[in-house]
Amino acid sequence: MRSLHTLAVTSAAAVFTLLAAGPESNAQSNLLESVKRNPGEAKALCQQFKSINAKGESALSSQSIAVVAGQRNLSPTEAEIVATYVIGLTCPDVR
Predict the structure, then answer these.
(1) CA-CA distance, 6 to 30, in Å (whole number)?
(2) CA of 64: how far to CAs of 8, 67, 68, 76, 80, in Å?
(3) Helices first, then strands: H and E counts in the chain
(4) pLDDT tier at 30 (50, 70, 90 boundaries)?
């Protein structure tokens, strides 16, 4: 379990680092900062992801990402970034 947590945190850090280097880094950085500043939002996403896991589905499945994108008015790519970030930093037990 500990190695999974380490992998998730490392993955989230890598995603964040890659975003910082891209041309859309300011908008994406703001997106991640928004989640970081609102721990309630991250907790709500974790609960949503745990519910998805309880159904035997991955929180990062295309269907799950589409739901997050629709709920938050994000592109699928942005939703996947947010989901990866939240899982890695807030709920590493989610798969």
Answers:
(1) 24
(2) 18, 5, 6, 10, 9
(3) 5, 0
(4) confident
> How many whole angstroms separate alpha carbon 1 and alpha carbon 66?
28
- Those residues whose C-beta lies under 8 Å from the C-beta of residue 23, and which sit 6 or more positions away, are none
- The model carries a pTM of 0.71
Instruction: Identify the band that residue 26 occupies on the pLDDT scale cut at 50, 70 and 90.
Output: confident
Please tell me the distance from the alpha carbon of residue 27 to that of residue 79, in angstroms, as a whole number. 13
The CA distance from 28 to 9, in Å, is 18
